[in-house]
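Fold Annotation — chain and its backbone

Encoding — discrete vocabulary of local shapes
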Amino acid sequence: MMSMSMSMPTSYVAIFTIAILGSFSHCIGMCGGFVLSYTSVKIDSSWSKKYQALMHLLYGIGRTTSYVVLGVIFGFIGQNIGVNLFSKGILFILLGVLMFILGISFIDKIGINKYLKLDILEIPIIKSIHFKTFKSKKAYSFFIFGVLNGFIPCGLVYFFLSTSIISSSAQSGAIGMLIFGLSTIPALFIVGFMANIIKNKFVKIFNYVASFLIISYGTITILKGFMMVLK
């Protein structure tokens, strides 16, 4: 059962809202480059538009698969950590602070983002597989490429993994990350066609709104944690 400061349906709506806003701002900025680069290398212009769309969809499904796996893992961790209300409260406070910092990172003016980056693609075996799937035009390579990119850490992923831990349930963690992954597909699906328009017109607005929502979510989580600690 999801032990959060909001009810399960409300939490999922919040996840969907933040994911949509984040996908049209943070994801386009960070992951848009991956989409544009693999589009230029992996997508053959002779393919039909429907087939090209299917390849993009396979990439998105691959990323979402990774997110669901991470959601199960972090939800399970949350389920088995904090055996009493006090320790659970401390966990909520720490994760709330992390969410608050991640919210600030969306409108970063003080260099927080440089501390949130981990280059998982520098691990030799992952780097090798990533390179091979990047060059391949076979359908399955789009899915694998998406799976690998799904494990690349970023602020938005950190935030949703925090919600998975707080959910205290592997199932709820998986559902939350599934919603997150599916919500990011539309923005990255059209990034090749509308990247410049979106980046110039709307990214700043989406960043500020997503930042506000994440900071609010973090604040609520901190307050929830203090309520647990003080009981």
